[in-house]
Amino acid sequence: MAKATTTFSCTKCAATYPKWSGRCDNCGEWNSIIEDKGLSAGPPSKSLGNKRGNAMTLSDLSSHEDPPPRTESGLAELDRVLGGGLVPASAILVGGDPGIGKSTLLLQAAGAFANRGLSTVYISGEEASAQVRMRAQRLGLSDAPVRLAAETNLRDILTTLEAERPQLAIIDSIQTMWADNVDSAPGSVSQVRAAAHELTSFAKRRGTSVILVGHVTKDGQIAGPRVVEHMVDTVLYFEGERGHQFRILRSVKNRFGPADEIGVFEMTGRGLAEVSNPSALFLSERGEPSAGSVVFAGVEGTRPVLVELQALVAPSPHSQPRRAVVGWDSSRLAMILAVLEARCGIPFAGLDVYLNVAGGMKISEPAADLAVAAALLSAREDVALPAETVVFGELSLSGALRPATQTENRLKEAQKLGFTSAIAPKGGKPVGVDGITLRPMGDLTGFVGEIFGAG
Length: 455
Ligand code: TYD
Ligand code: MG
Hints:
With 455 residues, the chain is of the alpha/beta class. It folds into three domains: 6-44; 76-276, P-loop containing nucleotide triphosphate hydrolases (Rossmann fold, 3-Layer(aba) Sandwich), CATH 3.40.50; 287-452, Ribosomal Protein S5, domain 2, CATH 3.30.230.10. The protein contains eleven helices and 21 strands. It has helices at 76-81, 102-115, 129-138, 154-164, 189-206, 226-229, 278-282, 330-344, 369-381, 407-416, 444-452, and strands at residues 7-10, 16-17, 33-36, 91-96, 120-124, 146-150, 168-172, 209-215, 234-240, 246-254, 262-268, 271-274, 293-300, 303-315, 323-326, 351-357, 389-391, 394-395, 401-402, 421-425, 437-441. Strands 6-5-7-8-4-9-10-11-12 form a nine-stranded mixed sheet. Strand 1 (7-10) and strand 2 (16-17) form a beta hairpin. Helix 8 crosses helix 9.
């Protein structure tokens, strides 16, 4: 009999270890390593190559494949993030913080797909069927032909799916699923991994699209969605700030479409409403032009999005001034502060710096560099930027500005929302948009001189 082995794995990144340790060497997380019972570790005792398998037929790269047929839900924000609708036999992971609205989104999606003729099964491991029905009522979906079950036993679920052969199965959530052949608690790395593996292979085998819900976890006791990211075709994250109404569905991986696409929704009393013009929403709380506030003309996936950046710079009472960022990368902020100091001679030593992306949006685009620099300078000098101006451009360490992608899209969006001028990097393909005065900048020093009249 094979010796029973115990391995340990990280609940954040799924790295495995033969021994427990306090910190994961792979991702650096503390207290995330837990025991993984029942998973045999190590290589198989006999090499596979020694035994004869079946010879496969190999094919050419040039063989013709039709693009996958897609079904649209009719929820345009969801369809775009999926790459133009749902692909049969695809496995999709929807991750997000508990309470952010994943179950609401997926019940709405289930209703929408079912109403379009897709046979749809919704399996909840977290709520009783009655609860799901009540939610459906609230969402106005009581009549949608969605089949419902409340179950966590994976064997029963697979048997049911084999019998029903639905076109879409939604599993809410992967952390509540329990495979009886794996000897550890639901939510552990090995359970989550086993359940995801069974369900994705069912998807491939039977042509059912499977959507898995995964909670992002902070305490490390339950395995997070990271553990299954590599097994699925598409990974979507549902994000948002607690105090804000809107939610962003972001594709971080998609084998059937572009990654980095976003869909914007607003949480209302009757479920999630689509936001077809996010810029208007993100700018809706903007007041009079003031020092420290800058509108960044960004692009998320294929869509331009305008957001307001707010900076506050104040003398610090601390020996080590504070640098706090919400919605942007803090090391990128440190870089911009360093460039401002080294290339333009504008020090931030002894000053606390706060940067906030208004409305709870998260920005990862490097083209936000110039907008951030503008917000910091505007806050520091207590000078508002010219009214009705948008800013974008990537900054290099030398202080030079690099042309951004999709300049025309950005300018058109700005024009649509009533802006009249744009501060953007020089160079690249010249573009003009009626109603927008372009103010091209070669480097940061030039920008500081022209906009703030100082160096
Ligand atoms: P839920 O979808 O249960 O979150 P998750 O599955 O990600 O844990 O969403 C829960 C929150 O959404 C809850 O705080 C209530 C709110 N909500 C609304 O505001 N309106 C609605 O119509 C619904 C169904 C939920
Ligand atoms: Mg839920």
